[in-house]
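sorry to bug you again but im stuck and you know this stuff better than me. what follows is a protein written twice so to speak, once as letters and once as structure tokens for the fold. id like you to explain what the token line says about the fold, in plain words if possible. anything you notice is useful, everything is just below.
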Amino acid sequence: QVRLVESGGGLVQPGGSLRLSCAASESIFRFNAMGWIRQAPGKQRELVATITLGGSTNYADSVKGRFTISRDAAKNTMSLQMNSLKPEDTAVYYCNGDLRVVSGTSDYWGQGTQVTVSS
């Protein structure tokens, strides 16, 4: 069964840093694209960052310059380094992957990890 499992969330003070990781049961190169999506109460779901098979990255304007998405093929993991965290970054962060299958692609999600930025 294809699985994506997030880890690394927690409570951090404003200005602090966290590193989120997503462990994949499949080679990360089987995914056309992977990314991080966050959901906060009262807010729309937001696509935070993506990385394509070719290594191209993209970021939401709200996190540009503060967050960095990366991948480690040897460990089948994708990470999100979050620096200069703000209270508005508080959300559940989900790992997402677009897996190539015979019929096309299939979208997979992790269970989510809570990030809370507060004094």
